[in-house]
Write a structure and sequence with these properties.
Structural class: mainly alpha
CATH class: Mainly Alpha
Distance between the termini: 40 Å
CATH superfamily: Urease accessory protein UreF
Shape: globular
CATH architecture: Orthogonal Bundle
Number of helices: 12
Amino acid sequence: MSNEATELLRLLQFSDSAFPVGSFSFSNGMETAAEEGLVRDAATLEEYTFDIVRQAAFTDGVAALHAYRSREQGRYDGIPEADRYVILCKMNAEARQMTLRMGKKLAELSRRILSDDIVERWLGEIDAGRTPGTYPVAQGILFAACGISERGLFCSQQYGTANMVLSAALRCVRVSHYDTQRILFDMSRRIDDMYRIASEMELDEMHAFAPQTDILASLHEKGLKRMFMN
């Protein structure tokens, strides 16, 4: 199998919603947005999804790229640094819970499917409590170790974020699979511009100002709709 085919197949594997890292358990506040009437149809769902994706691009996306480059350049110190910045950008407890649970799961899974000293070292740091162990950083390490391009990493990260929201919407909002697939298809046209910006950002330039989603997360803790963890 050619290197190009191997990279593509691994990219598809790691981007699959069935990849066992627990993403199906989270919604990025979708059910509370539906309960509050902020998302009620395909048009409002598209706006909400883009807001979530854009926030992820300039936080998690930036951190994933920095972790990827640190792994590629043999600069281990850059990995826990990116890890810390991700946590700083998570304003609510449930967002932190999501990234830590999925990050630890992906790190453990990475150990099972490949042999990599950086993965082993980072997982040891997580277990020792010396680094948080966030999901985008785990993605950056894994994708670099598997020879997937950083553009592929960014696209996978964005796809996963959008798909998490849209999959949840099918259970919470009066929309169809046709609506969610059209939104996902249209969203892909915006990825190049976001990648171009995120790829040039430093960690201290990450920005996560999205007060509406943080309010939704706080409402969810006492909300009636609890189909998902956050």
